[in-house]
Design goal:
Elements (H helix, E strand, L loop, with lengths): L5 H10 L4 H8 L3 H11 L6 H9 L14 H17 L8 E5 L2 H15 L7 E7 L4 H12 L11 E3 L7 H4 L4 E6 L2 H9 L4
Parallel strand pairs: 2-3
Antiparallel strand pairs: 1-4, 2-4
């Protein structure tokens, strides 16, 4: 079995965030050999979810925490956490999601993510749910214009509910319900950890 130095292994696996298979290719050895030396040196291996996250984000997290600095920041931060606590979909483990009929509420939540986590506006995705008596194109154009986003940011499938199936909620939903999506499990977990217990 080809020996691998602890320093070199730490550099590749910890510092450079290489996978075991990438290290094996570089070192011209088997993955089993890499696992053996990692175990011997006490280097903990990543969980499957951590490995998958690294594979999808090879340049590191696509967001950066930037704490509130001013009174206005603190108000926006409180609003954002409150909105996610009250309106967010916490059961989804892979992304940050918040749905509502109020465009100002959605824009406030987006401002919160942009300001404190440096999310890029173009990285948001949106889902639209409408009633069968609402024109899908009219609703879509309304949300594109109101949220200042591109059509490509909306999922292609528009979910249509039967009219009246949601009772009085339908009266508030002239242009349907939009769900803001930001696909990142680490950010989702960070937000959930900041919610009041």
């Amino acid at each position: 079995m080809k020996p691998i130095s602890e320093k070199h292994l730490n550099h590749l696996y910890i510092d450079k965030q290489c996978s075991m298979s990438e290290i094996a290719k570089r070192m011209k050895c088997s993955v089993h050999s890499v696992q053996y030396w990692m175990k011997k040196f006490g280097i903990p291996s990543r969980s499957r979810s951590d490995a998958a996250y690294l594979q999808h984000n090879p340049d590191g997290d696509p967001f950066t925490w930037s704490p509130p600095r001013t009174q206005t920041d603190h108000i926006l931060y409180g609003l954002g956490i409150g909105l996610y606590w009250g309106e967010g979909t916490k059961s989804c483990k892979t992304s940050v999601r918040l749905g509502n009929t109020d465009p100002e509420l959605l824009k406030t939540f987006m401002r919160f993510l942009i300001r404190f986590f440096r999310i890029r506006h173009e990285d948001f995705r949106f889902g639209l749910q409408i009633f069968s008596d609402i024109d899908p194109e009219v609703a879509l154009q309304y949300w594109i214009k109101t949220l200042h986003v591109k059509r490509e940011q909306f999922h292609k499938k528009v979910i249509v509910s039967k009219s009246g199936s949601m009772g009085t909620y339908r009266k508030k939903s002239v242009y349907g319900v939009v769900t803001v999506h930001y696909h990142n499990s680490k950010l989702r977990n960070m937000l959930v950890s900041r919610l009041p217990l």
